[in-house]
Amino acid sequence: MENWIPVLFAAPTLLIIGILLSFWKSKQTDQADNCSLSLFTIIHTVIYFGISLWLIFAADLPITLFDNEYFYIDALSGYEILITTIVFLLVSLYGRGYVSGLIKAGDLDAIVLKFFYAAFCLLELLLVFGFMSNNIALLWIFIELSTIITAFLIVTLNARENILAALKYIFIASTAMIFGFIGIIILFTLSQKVIDGGSLNWTTLMDIAHSVDPSILSFAFIFLFIGFAAKSGLVPFHTWIPIAYARAPSIVAAVSGIVLNLGVYGILRLYAIGNLAGAGEFLKNFLLVIGLLTVIIAAFSILARTNTKKLLAFSSIESMGFMIVSIGIGAPVALFWMLFFQFTHSLVKTLLFFCAGIFRRQYKSNKFDMIKKPFQLQPLASWGLILGGAAIIGTPLFPIFLAKWNILSVLVSASFPAFVVLLVCFLLVAVGFVLFFIRAFNQKTEEEIQPYQVPSNMKVPIVITICLIIAMGLYIPSWLNNILLDISGILGF
Amino acid sequence: MSWNMILYIVLNTAFVLLLAPLFMSLIKKVKAMCQGRRGTPLLQTYFQLFKLFKKEIIYSDTSSFIMRISPYLNIAFLLVASIAVPIVFIPAQESGFGNIILFLYLMVCARFFMALGGLDAGSAFGGMGSSREMTIASIIEPSMLMACAAMAFILKSTDIPLMFETVLDNSVAQYPTLILVAFSLFIILIVETARVPVDNPETHLELTMVHEAMILEQTGPKLALTELSYGIKQLILMALLINIIFPWGLAVEITPIGILISIALFTLKAVILSVLIGVFESSFAKIRFFRLPDFFMIVFFLSFAIIVFELLT
Amino acid sequence: METLFLSGCAILLLCCVFSLVTIKKSGRNNRRIGFFILLSGLICITISSVLCFLNDTDCGRTFYSITEGLSFGFHLDKLSSLFTGLIGIVGFCTVIYTISYIEHGATGKRRQIFAALLPLFILAMIMVVVSDNMFGFLFSWEIMSISSFFLVMHEREKAETQKAGIFYFVMTQFSTLFLFIAFLVIYKYSGTFDIKNAAVLPDAAKGLAFAALFIGFGTKAGLIPFHKWLPYAHSAAPSNISALMSGVMLKVAIYGLCRFTFDVLQPDLWWGFILLAFGTISAVLGVIYALKEHDFKTLLAYHSIENIGIIVLGLGMYIIFNYYGLEIQANLSLVGALFHTFNHAVFKSLLFMTAGSVVQATGTRNIEEMGGLAKTMPFTAVLFLIGACAISALPPLNGFASEVMIFQAYLGSFELNNAVVEIAMVVGLAAFALMSALAAACFVKAFGIVFLAKPRSREAGRATEVSRNMLGGPAVLAFICIVLGVFSYQIIQGIGFDIPIPNLLPVSILLLLITLILIGFLKLARVPVRIEETWACGIRKQTEAMEYTATGFSEPIVTIFRLIFRTRKTNDKEYFDEAKSITKSTKAHISTLQFFEERIYLPFARFVMRIASFISEKHNKDLETFIVYAFVAIVLVLITAGVWL
Amino acid sequence: MIDTLIFNDIVRGLFVFVLGTAVLIITQRSLTSLFKIYAIQSFILAIMAVVLFIDTGTLNLLFIALLTLIVKTVFIPLFLHKSLKKMAVKRDIQFYYLTPASSIIISALLMFTVYFVFKNFAATLFEDSLFLLGGVIGVSLVMMGMMIIFSRKKILTKITGYLTMENGVLLFSLFMAEMPFIIELLVMIDLFIVILISTVMAFGIDSSIESFHRRLVKFGLEFED
Predict the structure, then answer these.
(1) Contact C/B (≥3 CB pairs under 8 Å)
(2) Distance from CA of A223 to the nearest CA of C (A)
(3) What percent of chain A has pLDDT over 90?
(4) Contact at CB, A412 and C188, closer than 8 angstroms
(5) SS3 A187
């Protein structure tokens, strides 16, 4: 019975992509095209959201699909799928108004529109399949494809810098992924030593982990880690993120914030296997070092930022680094709060990108010195930016403060120097954000700027996200609590 | 507030009010004698006060309510401070007045309002007087506290009547370091009453007068009250110095004869001290204003040394 | 009493939500309604804390928990009820003052946001003081900092407010960082978050926890090395906010210091010395810097640093005396410090509010341009005079009542049998005396220059008395000052400490009696009164230029303490001829070195910024450089794999 | 089946050829000959696969050899030549960071470090030292590919660098373990898509925005309306 779940996911996408591609250039104006095309996208994301809700609440996880177990959904992948579908739903709602703004401003010409929406839906399919795939090689391929699709989405604005940004993204990501593939081959030979046919499925690897030689497993871990690190933007491979986010349209930037989660998901699974195999000690130090390096570099570069979207890009890198550090601690409490942090961080980052998008449309540039009289022109966007910024910094009313407090309380006993360094970096990030906001929101100007009419369907997702964030800051629902608890159970922390 | 206390307060303040002008004119007379003049008659200050009380009050148009109330507050604070220093007889029980910190700060209060009065008239003299007065006060304050600390450390209490009693019971010989304390108290007396090395009480020359400048604008009865308060302050500090060193004759229980003896003895000792002050004043020239901190450092170091000796033995 | 307290907090929260909800129609009257609700909330809190303080009953409950580990609870005992009472009273008066103070300046909507943030700020402070676990403490501590940051940025157009805002935010986050370290180190050893005796810490960790606590709370309280944000934040913030911040927020930091050093950790001796040393330095330097300050609110801000110094040195002495077992002196210094906390909150917010009315009336903050306001603003002048007398510790008022306790503790330190400690105490006594005298001098200058003589500028001349409730708030505080001062002996006895302090009641009765007798005597004599011109050696017209200025007044003291100020006097001349004999014009300039800012804060900030620009410049390179980064990283990882595995 | 001694010599000979082509690719300046050398390299890999098939007899290797022959030796170089004709570019003479000489030295060093790293894992991963050598050369080929990417200017050269990395991985997998064929196929498809997107973008870079669409028409991606 369960076999039809991937079909359930795949069918609507293929159907909608077919409709989109066959969408003949009809007589109506570009705006009308945009409305109908974006309608299809919204339907697509709503279906996905429905399925993921059904998965989380109704279905009794874990479910394995197809006889050779290529697809497998357990609490962790269900949780990640939930995050992805929520964000995609919000982004598609917001995207409808945003893309019409793009077309009106002439940045996006109507011909490429259908490819844009098709790629958007395809990306969601790839991400969901990535989370569902039990086989690491399959996950590898989905990650490769998601890189390509995101690169294509970045190129849609067909400005010269966009193509450069996309190329950088492709090359950095795929070169690192090739090293990932070497890791897969090593892992495969290791599994062959233990069971005859050798398999790359997460489940079988988890079972045979205790009988695998830990040092070679961590060797394979390192290669795979390089691949996933490029995908989730950790230090040596993070350099494409600020350029890609700054050039890409805001909805693509918001969505590629979720693609980073796929990388962190891979690292988490791998670490779980390594932990079971007894290579925990080396992996912990490795993850702590890389995580701290990422947080330090991101924190320092946030301080000197002038471009809004680059500021958000670096704060994404910093959050990824923080997640890797909390995985590196290895305690179940840290894992619980790291997953909670992942959920809330994706929401806050989406909110920030929405507001940055509105500012970009209003002031035609991301530079902070172009922002004039933000509170009069775009009250909702500026308050959204302030609340989002406060949330990212970790002010109490918002959920990220809870996550930081608990992870740090575990980190104190794990390693004190890392704890102090992390705190200093949080201070730098907070100062960086406030410096940016104070300078941006207090530019004086005389000339009259007519406000950019923000359509209501862009305002709705912003308000929804703000309410979601504040709600999660004060109350953690029981179902979320239980899911996170059995995830740490599954991963054997 | 037992009978003993009320009688003490009445007697003490009456004595202080009566004798204060006497010692002011006595010191003037001694200084005149040192300069070879015969000087004014001893009762001159009484005549002056009486004359001033009859004169009319003139306020400057720029002054505010401060100018009107500062003389009253000035003399009120100093009269209450005078209760802390028993001259007539040592009151029976622990009254709330005796604390030495309270005594010092009441004098700070008087100076505070006098300085405000000086500023109120809006003339350059008043401003300069207040500014210099507050500067001198803030530099001498640590030395005053050190002297009090020395007394408290030696006599093991912070209540002035109690201190006098302990010195009265066992003679000075028992506390040799008290002599050094007396010396720094003498310097503090000179500074507080604006005597020559620090400031010249008689002159009205802008550059030299500090205390006088502040009360330049006071007229009539207000000036009389301020002059009287200056006399009271001088008498209290002299009483503190005398009774801490030679408290003999200071009656402990209330007998008319005992009180008369202590008053007589006190006036005698006070006269000797005033002569000493007069001679001291005329033997020094006025120090330059910015040399004063070094002068005060000597006093500060002296009382600091006392305390260190007291602690180390 | 517990329900009263909770209802008070609920009302505050309601008020914050109310003004947020009615943000659209930002009319004057619904703001008034909001403020009246706030007043009622504050009254409930004050009553409940006074009740709890007097009959010494502890009460507490955890009222909300996010997940099983993180819960918010409150626990009201004697110490925290003192501080909630303080917040209640000062908050009450500040809100009365704010009702008409907020009507000037800033657009309607921003006033509405201000009206929303004020109750949140007060509620956060109360929650900090009463919270029973570290999570709740830090949670409300952060909300307090962030809401006060937004309040400081009320008039955010001005460039100096932005600078003050950034400076303030950086220092609050700096203090939160150290609190994080302290709390989590304590959590690491004690295993629980709640604030109770965690005696299990080993010595090194206890020392580290104390150091982090001291820096964290010291930054927020404004002790010397971390004080630099205070003068900027207080002069940039609107006056009622700087009244609340310096009156109450600094005290919350002091509460934190007391609670954690005395209740949670067992204090060692060297802690006492650190507190004593930093307290004395902050007190003396605070007042010396205040003397050269000519911006009205910065002058008061530096005095906050001075008074915080007094409180901290009082706490330090408590630890030292406690260690040596001198019961009376220990009680004296602790009660002195806590009583001074209360007094300082009362008279400092009184001073800030009256200063706020003066600044609003004259439109400038520079005291050189004020003068003669006593005649045009008599009530504000009287209130400021009461505040000034209180802060410079003049006898009948409360400033003296608490400082005399600390003096008494100093003078009683001869019973310590350790000579070195006694010498330290004596030096501390000298510094303390110097500080209190300089404070008196500074407030003579402040009051004299601002209120007395003739107005030095046209705006000061045109100043008029402020509205009724801008006088009502400060008047209540002035009354409290007098009552606390005169009845201090009775109050302290009532609370249950019998410590040897002078009874100020008879003193003040006598003072009143003598003054009344004298006034009556002169009235009877019906002495004629005449108003004439000030005597100015016969010059015809007495102009305000001839008055003594603030710089002139503090110039002698500044020259005496020039080593601390390191004043640089530069005068550059221009000459007509190259032989430099006939000068065309000279420009003289006196600048005092902002030691902490120029030597410590700015160089450090520049260093951090240089690293930041170096690292961020690495990120806008082309594809090849990025691949080289990746390549080098992969080779390094391979080598580590080879070596380690 | 065939005598192991001769088998070792053949395999070592093929290794030398592979390294030769890799070095040539790094130092090659003209793009057309660059693609030819890439085709030769893929062809050698196909032979390697066939030889291994003969030795171990797993049918999988034969399919991989066939797949490599079709896709990598014929189809991709053809596609690259076609796209080269469209672009005006003929030579890529600009070298960043590494001149041809220094890049050869570095690749030798790399080979040594990879050998040093893989040595202590050899026992469990490879059957005998020949396979270890194969694995090491595979990984160092990948590293060389990466060096090509960061030391050359033109996008097409970078794509060839990426393809060499791909070959390196293929070589590594030949000597390491028999990957299920479905994975190899998917990897090949994915490789092709990457190249397609990059070349399309390469066109975008070279041309200005207006002519960007006209060029797309040649690829049939554009509808003339």
Answers:
(1) yes
(2) 9
(3) 23
(4) yes
(5) helix
pLDDT over threshold 80, residue C588? yes
User: Are A265 and A301 within one domain?
Assistant: no
- Does A108 reside within a domain? yes
B50: which 2 tokens? 């009486």
Q: Is residue A457 part of a domain?
A: no
Domain contains A264: yes
Averaged pLDDT score across all residues of chain C: 87
DSSP C514-580: HHHHHHHHHHHHT--EEEEPPP-TT-S---GGGSPPHHHHHHHHHHHTHHHHTEEEEEEEEESSTTS
**A214 and A89 both lie in a single domain:** no
Q: Which residue has the higher pLDDT, C29 or D37?
A: D37
Please tell me whether residues A290 and A438 are part of one structural domain.
yes
Tokens 């050829």 found at: D17
Contact yes or no for A234/A167 (Cβ under 8 A): no
| Number of continuous H segments (helices) and E segments (strands) in chain D | 10, 0
The residue out of A216, A248, A278 marking a domain boundary is A278
DSSP code for A450: P
| Alpha-carbon distance A366 to nearest alpha carbon in chain C (angstroms) | 16
Is there a single domain that holds both residue A224 and residue A299?
A: no
Residue A490 counted as domain residue: no
Q: What does residue B280 show for φ and ψ, rounded to 5 degrees?
A: -60, -45
Sign of CA dihedral C412, C418, C419, C422: negative
Q: What pairs with residue C59 in β-bridges? A: C76
Sign of CA dihedral D71, D75, D81, D84: negative
Shared domain for A331 and A435, answered yes or no, is yes
* pLDDT value of residue D154: 80
Q: Which chains touch C (3 or more CB pairs under 8 A)?
A: A, B, D
State the CB neighbour count (10 A cutoff) for residue C329: 26
Beta-strand relationship, C71-76 and A71-73: unpaired
Instruction: Say if CB C147 and CB C117 are below 8 A apart.
Output: yes
Residues B143, B300 contacting (CB under 8 angstroms)? yes
Instruction: Look at A144 and D190 and tell me if their CB atoms are within 8 Å.
Output: yes
Residues of C in contact with A215 (CB under 8 A): 645
Q: What is the mean pLDDT of each run of 10 residues along chain D (225 residues)?
A: 72 88 85 89 90 82 85 87 78 74 88 87 76 88 90 84 89 79 78 79 60 50 39
Give all chains having 3 or more CB-to-CB distances under 8 Å with chain A.
Answer: C, D
Domain membership of residue A439 as a residue range = 286-446
What residues pair up with C591 in beta bridges, in sequence order? C568
A303 vs C70, C162, C609: nearest CB: C609
Hey, is the C-beta of B77 within 8 angstroms of any chain C C-beta?
yes
Residues A224 and A349 in one domain: no
Residue A75's nearest CA partner among A272, A233, A209, A210 is A272
Q: Which of D110, D116, D149 sits opposite C627 (nearest CB)?
A: D149
Whether residue A355 sits in one domain with residue A314: yes
Q: pLDDT, tens digit, for every residue of A53-75?
A: 888 887 776 776 666 667 788 88
**How far apart (Å, rounded) are the C-alpha atoms in residues C434 and B145?**
9
The dihedral built from the CA positions of residue A119, A124, A129 and A130, taken in this order, carries a sign that is positive
- The sign of the dihedral angle between the CA atoms of A120, A126, A130, A132 is positive
Neighboring chain C residues of D150 at a CB cutoff of 8 Å: 623-625, 627-628, 631
Q: How far apart are CA A34 and CA A38, in angstroms?
A: 6
Q: Which two tokens stand for residue C560?
A: 């005496």
CB C297 within 8 A of CB C235: yes
Query: Can you give the length of chain A in residues?
Result: 493
Residue C229 token pair: 């944000």
How much is the ipTM here? Answer: 0.86
Across the interface, whether the CB atoms of B76 and C552 are under 8 A apart is answered: no
Q: For residues C118 and C124, give the distance between their C-alpha atoms in angstroms, rounded to a whole number.
A: 10
State the DSSP string of D159-221: HHHHHHHHHHHHHHHHHH----HHHHHHHHHHHHHHHHHHHHHHHHHHS-HHHHHHHHHHTT-
